[in-house]
Amino acid sequence: MPIVKIVILNWNGAEHLRRFLPSVVAAAPAGVGVVVADNGSTDGSLAVLAEKEHQQQEDGEEAFVDNVIMYEILSELKDIAARPDGITCACGSGRYGMEIRRSAVDLICRDCGAKLRIPAATDRDLDDLCCHMKLVIPGKRN
């Protein structure tokens, strides 16, 4: 796992991701990872990331432990986030961001900083997520 990472903060930047993410990944030196931290985008940014991941898979590049599982996990998270109060924090906040990693997705509360790691590497990880109608980040309760 890379020690050095390029972190891209994103909020409703689907077109920028579509246009520039491939060149950032291509320009990253060997051993340097690229992480996109999404701040609850509503413009299809997660779909763009899934699309780019799918393209990498077709090109023979492996961005994730299991590209299909990651695509499905991101799709499930998109569905959960679209529900009223689908993703919230125990602190009472509904503001969160997302960091997509090689084998997991971290949901991070923008108010208290608490994290919820969603494993995204195996069929069981996907099965575990599919059962949830809502997700609660375990932050400090108000």
Polypeptide structure, described:
The chain is an alpha/beta fold. The chain is 37% helix and 25% strand. The protein is built from four helices and seven strands; from the N terminus they run E-H-E-H-H-E-E-E-E-H-E. Strands 1-2-4-5-6 form a five-stranded mixed beta sheet, with helices on one face. Strand 5 and strand 6 (115-119) form a beta hairpin. The model has no long low-confidence stretch (mean pLDDT 85).
Oligomer: single chain
Pattern of helices and strands: EHEHHEEEEHE
Quick one: biggest sheet?
A: 5 strands, mixed
State the end-to-end distance: 36 Å
Q: What is the number of E strands?
A: 7
Radius of gyration: 15 Å
Low-confidence stretches: none
Strand order of the largest sheet: 1-2-4-5-6
Q: Which secondary structure elements does this structure contain, and how are they paired or packed?
A:
Blueprint lengths: L3 E7 L3 H14 L4 E7 L6 H14 L8 H16 L4 E3 L6 E5 L3 E6 L5 E5 L3 H8 L4 E3 L5
Parallel strand pairs: 1-2, 3-7
Antiparallel strand pairs: 2-4, 4-5, 5-6
Descriptors:
alpha/beta, two-stranded parallel sheet, 4 helices, 7 strands
A few lines on this structure:
With 142 residues, the protein is α/β, with parallel strands linked by helices. The protein has helices at residues 14-27, 45-58, 67-82, 123-130; strands at residues 4-10, 32-38, 87-89, 96-100, 104-109, 115-119, 135-137.
